[in-house]
């Protein structure tokens, strides 16, 4: 968790109101979307903290293979989950069965089984006037059967006005992946919270205060450099804050009295932060893209500012229609953004610089 959650007051309020207002409140069914590093996981952690402070139970899961089964096991850890279902069937590879030790729960049974497990857990909690929060992170990566099982179960319980909240978070691609799925219309009704960049004034105040609290002054030109370097991107706020602090601290470890961040400290700290940003954000983002997506980005990176889509197509040696397929994909994934008038620009801070520095490597691996 960052030392200070910057610029997220309104979404936190929405969630907290949802808990306070009781079953049926919109904040109890929420989807949180945003680009990599924008703070989705941190938000789920904060929701968990708030829910626990209300004496709620919290189950947090990350979508990956076996999600529904893991959820089931966490809901009924003592009984073998299979006893809850009517007819355990033997798992047959390829038929969508979820293996559970010897027996399995088929994808047809899973929604009902989950619903029963959730229901009985809620019985216990509601007797103590407590509720249940379930959060699913990286929802864009969930298996469709898992998502159907969970959505179906939660939908019934919410309709029955049980004391629960359900929040799922993921990359903006969940919109095209799950919300267009007819079976999952329920998820479309979730309150949408799109996380974006944090205003620089908020970054300014937060950095200043956090440094002050640690006994090192960050002010003047050094503060301005640090604030500007973050571009309001939450992950970069964290990195810049940490690395600038570390450089300044090391240089003045033995100083008595007031310590301050010099412009040199700021410069070095920002450099270190940028290196870490490349490893932690740009690299993994590139790994998730197709070779042609990457070609599109490399073609864009030749410009110093927004790129003309026709110039990009020409550099790729492709027609505008062909290039536009990748333009749309990259916009959906929030890697680039539409600037209007046939222009696009990078949506992830410092991605242009990263692509230029790593262009040869990215091409080679293709
Ligand atoms: N509101 C915020 N204020 C300050 N720092 C934040 C905020 N939100 C996130 N951060 C910092 O940004 C970093 C990335 O946050 P987080 O891991 O939640 O992003 P994410 O959206 O889940 O990314 P990914 O899609 O890669 O999982 C964290 O290290 C956190 O410290
Ligand atoms: Mg995350």
Helix-strand layout with pairing:
Elements: H1 9-21, E1 29-33, H2 40-53, E2 57-62, H3 67-75, E3 98-100, E4 103-105, H4 110-127, E5 132-137, H5 144-159, E6 164-170, H6 174-177, H7 185-188, E7 191-194, H8 200-214, E8 216-217, H9 220-230, H10 234-251, E9 259-260, H11 263-287, H12 291-300, E10 307-308, H13 309-316, H14 320-332, E11 336-340, E12 343-346, H15 351-365
Parallel strand pairs: 1-6, 1-7, 2-5, 5-6, 8-9
Antiparallel strand pairs: 3-4, 10-12, 11-12
Helix pairs in contact: 1-2, 3-4, 4-5, 8-9, 9-10, 9-11, 10-11, 12-13, 12-15, 13-14
Assembly state here?
single chain
Fourth CATH level, the homologous superfamily of the largest domain: P-loop containing nucleotide triphosphate hydrolases
Order of helices and strands: HEHEHEEHEHEHHEHEHHEHHEHHEEH
Biggest beta sheet attributes: 5 strands, parallel
Attached small molecules: adenosine-5'-triphosphate, magnesium ion
What's the architecture of the largest domain, going by CATH? Answer: 3-Layer(aba) Sandwich
What does the model show?
This is Orc1-like AAA ATPase domain-containing protein. Residues 5-157 form the Orc1-like AAA ATPase domain. InterPro entries: AAA_16, P-loop_NTPase. The strands form 4 sheets. Strands 2-5-6-1-7 form a 5-stranded parallel β-sheet, with helices on both faces. The protein contains 15 helices and 12 strands. The two termini are 36 Å apart. With 366 residues, it is α/β, with parallel strands linked by helices. Mean pLDDT is 89; it is low at 81-102. 39% of the residues are buried. β11 (336-340) and β12 (343-346) form a beta hairpin. It binds adenosine-5'-triphosphate (ATP) and magnesium ion. Adenosine-5'-triphosphate is lined by residues 2, 5-8, 34, 36-42, 234-235, 237-238.
